[in-house]
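Shipment paperwork, digital attachment
Item: protein structure file
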Amino acid sequence: MNKTENTQIKQNEEKAEERDLKELLRSRIKDIDSIPTIPAILRPLLHYMEQTVDQIEVQKIVELVSCDESITAQCLHMANSPLFGRTHEVDTVRGAVIALGVRKLRDILLSCLLVRLAPKERWAMDPVIFWQHSFGCALVSRQFARKINYHDPERAYLAGLLHDLGEVVNCIFLPEEFRATVEKACTEQLPFFEAEQATLGLTHCDSGKMLAQHWGLAEELTSVIFYHHDVEQAKLHPVLVAIVSLSDTLCRMRGLGYGFYEPKQTDFLDDPAWRILTREYPHMAEFDLARFTFELDEYTLQVRELVSSIFSKGS
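Attachment content:
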């Protein structure tokens, strides 16, 4: 057997292993809603969040929150936190909604729910660091969307928050492989998705897409989850994908990454995501990226306080 034939056989075996792993994930994801740590209100809340803020009813959020006693308690804890500027005690969910406003309480509630997706002991990386990155990307995506006049900054927030959902999937369903990926990324100082591809033959983009489809998330959210590391392949909603992709990179550059050094340098002006946005928004040519990156320090502080507050409550 010659060298070419050996190479072909190896490639075929690797593809077969990748298909097997994807099928294993798909079969396991079907049972995700029955896992005790998955709050029952998470999926309906995600769907409800896809509406614009002016379409959201206070009573609907009150009903969703009130379905789960532990979530109710945590939501009230967050609503009374100095982080959100409370000057008097809030002791009802309705009071929290009215005092904080629908958008802020919605952000708090989803934050509390998402950190319960996977138990702390299942994480190979520090879950606090992971969620700091996710919430950081959400805040930066929303602010970036506002800066460039994107039509729906709140959708950018949600897309940024969920962009790495696949890492939670890998943590829950492929714990040993996930641990090996973390070790490879840290040891070799690789971007996490590159370490996943080398270790698993797939990335959190693949597993995140599977969960997004299982949950029936909106097409644009699924597109962000799947393409945020390969924006040029995003045929649907490329602008939203580009916003989240750049926000993801900005967060990692400003210390809201995954807790290890990534030496890879980024030239934003040559980034495919930047080119997509400049085609859509010609005024981006005058965008002060340096100033915007310095503004992110404020979000870094907010995110660290938010996540620390959530975990200190025992999520």
